[in-house]
Amino acid sequence: MRYLLHESQRAELAGRQQYLYDVFRMYFLPGKPEGGFIPLEPVGTNDLDVVFITGHANYVGDYLKNRIKSIPERIIVITSCMGRTFRKHIANKAIYVPDTRKDLCYLRSGKPYGFDFNISDAELNFYNSSGSIMQRIQSAYDRLL
Length: 145
Fold this sequence. Notes:
Layout: E1 2-6, H1 13-24, E2 28-30, E3 37-42, E4 50-54, H2 57-67, E5 75-79, E6 94-97, E7 107-108, E8 119-120, H3 121-128, H4 133-140, E9 142-143
Parallel strand pairs: 1-4, 4-5, 5-6
Antiparallel strand pairs: 1-3, 2-3, 6-9, 7-8
Helix pairs in contact: 3-4
């Protein structure tokens, strides 16, 4: 499991690390940047075959275009606008996006919810849902088919 945060959101890094700790009860440390993204990798045992990618649609799209075949994880969870545009990659991976009925992934201030970054509804729903990580992903995100 990894979490990729686009470089343009570097100011959110500490807040995202706290979010990830709260969700997974694991610490995530930044790794060597790849394709304009900062990888956050869990410390300790991790057996989830999932990569979370957070960033603007153009950045995520470029990353997938250039790296989809080298992404080791089978499941990709994208927090970005224009989720349906990532459908072209479903032959290679199981891809989940915030809401397939909308083009935009609106962000709201995270402060009222205790977060130090602007957060999407999908991220809030994921944070507040229960069950296994896969059940939580499926309840908060839509799978592209």
